[in-house]
Write the structure tokens for this entry.
Amino acid sequence: MVKAICRDYGFDCDFTCDGDLDVVVTDFGKHCTEKHGIEYQKETLIKYLLNKWKTIKNLFLVLLKIINSPVLKSQKEL
């Protein structure tokens, strides 16, 4: 499941859609064309969405490492 938020892509717009990648790419692409006059290639939208979720995943992994670090655990014991 992925989510597209129009504001995340530089638009002053509250449109969001979520679901399977194919559905989101289709719905978000249609919205951008109809409301903002910009037609994105399907491959471009897929790349944007996958890069966004890859970044979030990497951030989550870093936070998980911090939470599990010995330094943080020793501070919790104080």
In short: Residues 2 and 50 are 8 Å apart (CA to CA).
